[in-house]
Amino acid sequence: MISTTIICALACLVLVDAERRQRETQRTVAKIVASCAFVATAILAVCQRGDADRAFELFQGCVVIGLVLGVVGDIALLYKRGFLVGLVAFLLGHLAYAVAVGYLVPPRLWLDHAGWLAAVPLVIGLGILAALWRTLDTLAVPVIAYVAVIVTMVIAATAATRAQLAPTTFAVGAALFFASDIAVARDKFVASTFANKLWGLPAYYAAQLLIAWSLVP
Question: Does the pTM of the predicted model rise above 0.85?
């Protein structure tokens, strides 16, 4: 797991450099390597021996599915016309993370366990929609659906962590994923600049790695 984590981190650095230099081949290879590395980290985590119960095993399975969908989204975003496909893939990935939490904490208890922290992603999500509303155009409905799902996912991850049924790394990873999506949104709907990728890409890969590490029994 340490080796695949290092590979992911190094590939992310190469990816950021590729974005700066605008080298498409380097960008494609680095992104695929980095993304496959966090899935490999998750698989190795699941293979660790431990005393995990059935609920945690189901949690692990759903999270791995979510990570694989992340790879699909990453590949889709390599193409200029792949934004909507990537959006759907990541939406399904966040949904998989939320379903995973449902095996640990019933959805009806998410708000109770998350407490006041549930308001943070909700307020940020509404703020993002308000700021981008005039630029969404035909993507308004899928973007609203995406924001709703990722906000729910972050609340669910927070609930699982505060209930001490999932590692803190899972909630931190969910929060970092949300932060990285802000960079993607700014790049797509506000201004496409290297600055968005400079912090958005490291935040994204750190998020997926933390989520992968949370699968250790």
Answer: yes
